[in-house]
Amino acid sequence: MFNRLLIANRGEIACRIIQTAKRLGVQTVAVYSDADADARHVALADQAFRIGPAAAAESYLDADKIIAAALDAGAQAVHPGYGFLSENAAFAEACAKAGLVFIGPPASAIRAMGEKHAAKALMVEAGVPVVPGYHGDDQDDKTLTEAAAGIGYPVLIKATSGGGGKGMRRVDKPADFAEALAGARREGQASFGDDRVLIERYLEIPRHIEVQVFADGHGNAVHLFERDCSLQRRHQKVIEEAPAPGLTPMRRAAMGEAAVKAALAVGYQGAGTVEFIVDVAKGLDDAPFFFMEMNTRLQVEHPVTEMITGVDLVAWQLSVAAGGPLPRSQDELAINGHALEVRLYAENPAKNFMPSTGTLSRLRFADEDQHVRIDTGVVEGDVVTPFYDPMIAKIIVWDENRERALSRLRGAIKQTEVVGVKTNLGFLGQIAANPHFAAAELDTGFIERHQDVLIPSPVPTPRRILALAALAVLLERADDAEETAWNNADATSPWHSVAGWRLNGDGHDEIKFVDDDEVIGVPVRYVDGGFIFDFADGAIEAQGRRESDDRMVAVLDGVRATVTVIHDRDAVTVMENSMIYPLEFFDPLSAVEDEVESGGGVVAPLPGKVIALLVEVGAEVEKGAPLMIVEAMKMEHTITAPAAGSITAFRFAAGDAVDEGALLVDFEPAQT
Prior knowledge:
- By secondary structure, the protein is of the alpha+beta class.
- It contains 18 helices and 39 strands.
């Protein structure tokens, strides 16, 4: 076993690797960018090296800096985690040249499976079924267009070096092919430095089932069963589970055998995942399965495999990389129970999953035990930046069967609290509670098919919640005023009062919140012993007291409850019965500035880089027409016209960096 290990990654996967290394007595070395100087993985490691600015290209993707850090630290091996350089054959070779053990497969295996078109040709030769499509070297637009027509629409365009849904586009009709091809090439080049693509038949009702494989340097290879990753959005996985619901033992054995055959065909070593697409249009029992790709690294969703097998895959990686044989043979591996994993992201499902940045002013999870596991790379107070993937955590649960595991998942989601950024927590809760998901009616179109239920239209915040938010603000004001008074020479001065005093009448005030871009006023009357909130549909009498900075005992119309309320700078968040209600305070000055600045323009929704301008200056466009593409947090975001009108100017060119809120386009609305 190694004495010292460098982890060439960040976030939750770096933390997870450090956890196993420490258990095995291996010293750990972290690397970090300027954006991650205070990150959790840096604090957990025994030693940490700065490797550059926040941009991944100048830090986590700079192989020379990482290898130099490993040598300076006296590390014997490098674990790449997933993403970044984990499937970079040149990096694996550079590690070997520097005398460092790369915790992963040989560079030849990475290269063989990294180019999807070549990998599929190799799989055909090895007798592994593949999806019909075009995997050729000729990347001419005409060739690809003709190939798509020959395959038959709908088709899927995929970056040959892609992964995680990047560089992937579904195309339903010939008229959309050219634009989708350009987008897939751009994203493939930006994410992987390779703009080549392949074309495949798009299966209408597919399930995404992948098999965990493991091989050593002594000719041994096993599979550790399968994971179902069918629930996806933008071709990125949302929920993963093991084993795959409804898969028969015979089909499990066949897929496992095919996966091992794929690994042996490229001389594989270490942990890998062979991904299959299963056509379930006629049911699962006899559904054909096709090789999609092999991920030559540890997968994000590996914890569900660990939960059902009792295997620590990172420990296996280290052991095999150190020259050891596989710890278990195939007949020593068995499935125990059922596990599910959800990916908690800083993103807004109601706005097409737009990534969200900000400070995690509150971050709480369910307690970990044999049933619940939390893998995270952040702690309360950390900042979600625009530089990296916006994952906050993975919530993993296990129980004896799927029904009980799903119940555990619902409970763990309800106990999760995140304040400071928009998240997909409510979306995950809706999936976990969905009867179709409970019935395992799974395929990759599940989220799109049930989108109206999973992402319901925003509804106004209930007046009870508005009353609780207003009460929390008033109680905090009163406590602050009392403290000020006692620290003042004249503690009884009426100037310390916050009760809205009025001559010959009750004191009154109004607290204004912004709820989903709508300004809502909560009128307040100050009465003996409490407050009255005068809503349009009736008044609410309120009393209460603060128990701590974030806990409040409230009595609304005689009904007592203890709730959590977080007052964070310009916002207040009420949490009750596992629901989270964020409300911003209304700032009249800010509203005036926004009105002035936003008139006649389109602003950036988050920090990023302009990738392409899609129309010419002077062009007349309809509402929703694509204007430009901005890349942020590893994804492309299309900026669209807010209304019918014309483009008078672009403020940025392709390649320019933009800040959140920056005016991107001068826009002249059409006269009505």
